[in-house]
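In the laboratory, one determines a bound structure by crystallizing the protein with its ligand and collecting diffraction data. In a computational setting the workflow is compressed into a single prediction: the sequence and the ligand go in, and a structural description comes out. We illustrate the idea with NAP.
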Amino acid sequence: MIENIFSMAGKVCVITGGSTGLGSYMAQGFLEAGASRVYITARSEDTLVKKAKELSAVAEGECIPIIGDLSSIEGVEALAASLQQKEKHLDVLVNNAGIGTGGPFSELKPETWDMTMDLNLKSPVFLTQKLRDLLSCKATSEDPSRVIFIASVAASYSIEGVLAYSTSKNAVEHVVPTLALALCEENILVNAVSPGRFFSEMTRGAWQDAESERYQAELARIPAHRYGDIKDIAGVAIMLCSRAGSYFTGEVLNLDGGHRLRH
Ligand SMILES: NC(=O)c1ccc[n+]([C@@H]2O[C@H](COP(=O)([O-])OP(=O)(O)OC[C@H]3O[C@@H](n4cnc5c(N)ncnc54)[C@H](OP(=O)(O)O)[C@@H]3O)[C@@H](O)[C@H]2O)c1
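The predicted complex, in structure-token form:
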């Protein structure tokens, strides 16, 4: 009975920001779990194309790059149009691309605020809206389509230094149950994962010197005493997008080794 419930066999998936970090980890996981096609998107062509080639070699499914900037509605529309041209339906959308911004409140610029909200909050909402038909056209209540938003443990912070970032991620968590209800009649499930600290380009400055006081202090503070890695995020994403997770909707899954409990 439980033999294949984590299988992604035959699924067509899109992961924004899939060239590095969490997006690339989920892409690898989906392909290893049997996905037919995983589209990954990013701005930097070289890194994206290289990652797509690398991931196409890990399993039978194909990893396909789509270059583009999702910080504007034009970029969102261009990605949706490209997917509409290539596919008749989609099974999975992971709204993962995001930017980490920070600094003291006194130095926060309106353009930084807008850039953070645009990429982390506005674009995922409107990409979901624009891909709604592709996501719903083949979905059934037994085999629903999935949308995953990537929030953050920072959604639970009240820390001045990450005001724009934490507000954008808190809003992402707020949006998820509302969209889950809005899309339930179309058999589209909407959930969020809220990661704690993971190895990625965004956090490289914090972990690349493993002996640094800052990194060691972080590990001491996180109840799991480690950063999250590919198996942690891929495992949860596969669960949410396979038969195993097809009764979850409107949920925010904290994936942080207990990090939020000590903030
Ligand atoms: N790492 C963590 O500890 C952590 C914790 C909590 C939440 N998160 C969230 O996880 C998600 C992934 O972050 P990550 O840590 O994996 O960071 P990452 O390694 O920096 O990856 C970010 C990805 O997004 C793409 N991207 C950035 N700006 C973009 C834009 N304007 N348009 C299109 N693509 C863009 C990047 O490629 P290009 O730069 O080439 O465009 C890259 O593929 C983010 O939403 C982040 O907030 C991460």
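The chain has one domain: 12-262. Keep in mind that any predicted model is a hypothesis to be tested, not a measurement.
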